[in-house]
Amino acid sequence: MAAGEYAGFVVRRAREEAGMTGAALARRCAISPSYLSQIEHNARVLTPAVRARIARELGVEAQQLTVDPKARTAAALVDSFAEHAELAALSLAEVHLVADQLPGVASALLKLANGRHADRERIEALEVRLGGDRGEDIGPQMPFEAVRDFIAMHRNYFDTLDRGAEELADALSLRPRSRYEQLRNYLRSLKVEVVEGSRTAVGGQRRYDPQARMVHVATELRPAQKAFQLAGQIALLTMNEQISAYLRTSPYTDDVTTRLTRIGLANYFAGALLLPYGEVLAAARRVRYDLEILSAEFDVGFETVCHRLNTLQRPDNSGIPFALVRVDRAGNISKRQSATPFHFSRTGGTCPLWTVYDAFTRPGQVLRQIAEMPDGRAHLWVARTVTSGAVGFRAPEKTFAVGLGCDLSYAPQTVYAAGLDLEDRTLRAKIGMGCRVCERPACPQRAVPFAGRTLQVDENRGQLYPYMHEPDEE
């Protein structure tokens, strides 16, 4: 069976909004009218290839012909249900029914799950504090998780900040290899001086003294990194009104989360200033999203390019919807942002079959993988390690693997699809959101059982696959 999803309603609505008959659309897409009718009535799935053809003929983005919000909601419900045996026992069909037909109930369940997750973290922190091992302050939630949710709520795109950065970049005629001095001169026009010093003297990478109106920047940073630090300071000095407007849309009111969100928005502006929207999108399309060419052309790091491509979601001129992830060797996810239905599990861990982890075995090389989730949705993933830190012998450094993924229907727009068979499902890596929430019955890499299913236990048989579970009841 071809990979795809039932998306009849959105296809029919898009066709009607375009003022096109079913017969006319079928003819333009080189498919039979009966085939299109079956798609529109959810008798057949909409495959990525057919979705791309229909989107092209209707003049819309392929992403508009998906049920992404509901698919993401269903995935989040599966994730949150994993900790409750009664809920985990529900079939995927039942979960999708709740997400599709009862969105209000689904939203309420996710809010309850998030609240329980925050309470559990608070209890764990309290236990640590009472045990005397650490002395962190205890809050009702993890602020960095709240910032991630806030960014996801805005679909990784902040229009006024992005357009403001693009206008400033155009006004200053910023150029990749001279922008540090250009931004330094711009700050001087704002009566702010830039002073370089050692990382130790600065106390980090950047420090602003509002009384003296001086920005201290670490000398050890590369010019592009210095430019990013100055761009972030420019955001805090000149875009306060726009940043505050976004902060008013945040459901979080505690001071730590608010400050972290403000920094996140300033960093968003900085990235948009160094990599102006229209210029980057045009270059990405020209080189078919070749990350290393874009990195060299704009004189920024691999991770910075990936992060910027993930934010190119302007409604009237969007790039490919990407998911972005950054992990360390231990599997900790330190950055995750998604403009796709790909869901990052909070309770199930991550999948060791994912190529993002293979990147550590081949540092500096760009790896690619067609990965298929248990629901049949497939993504093209590209991953590479990135290393940064202080300069010098034995100086501490940090290494991460950064992954960028898109729905398989967008893969032909990228250079990374070259030579890959996008249609052969037998060649796809079968991954999941994490062992606890992955329903694949037979996976040789499984570390823990799938929550909510009865294990198959037979003392008279030896199995290749650990923790095999009983199939769903019909």
Description:
The protein has 474 residues and is α+β, with helices and mostly antiparallel strands. Among the domains are: 8-66, 434 Repressor (Amino-terminal Domain); 71-126; 318-439, Beta-Lactamase (2-Layer Sandwich); 441-474, no CATH class. It has 19 helices and 9 strands. The strands form 2 sheets. Strands 5-4-8-7-6-9 form a 6-stranded mixed beta sheet. Strands 1-3-2 form a 3-stranded mixed beta sheet. Strand 6 (367-372) and strand 7 (378-389) form a beta hairpin. Helix 10 packs across helix 15 (255-274) and helix 11 (179-189) packs parallel to helix 13 (223-238). The longest helix is centred in the N-terminal third of the chain and has 29 residues, at 103-131. The protein starts with 7 loop residues before the first helix and ends in a 44-residue tail after the last strand. The relative contact order is 0.10. Mean pLDDT is 83; it is low at 127-140.
Low-confidence sequence ranges: 127-140
> How many strands, what sense, and barrel or not for the largest sheet?
6 strands, mixed
C-alpha geometry: globular
Which sequence of strands runs across the widest sheet? Answer: 5-4-8-7-6-9
- In DSSP terms (H or I, runs of 4 or more residues), the helix count works out at 19
Q: Using only CA atoms, what is the Rg?
A: 24 Å
Mean pLDDT: 83
> How many runs of DSSP E, i.e. beta strands?
9
Amino- and carboxy-terminal Cα gap: 19 Å
**Into which percent range does the helicity of residues fall?**
40-55%
The H-and-E topology, N to C, reads as HHHHHHHHHHHEHEEHHHHHHEEHEEEE
**What is the CATH C-level name of the domain at 318-439?**
Alpha Beta
Which second-level CATH architecture of the domain at 318-439 applies? 2-Layer Sandwich
* CATH topology-level fold name of the domain at 318-439: Beta-Lactamase
Strand content: 5-15%
Give me the secondary-structure category.
Answer: alpha+beta
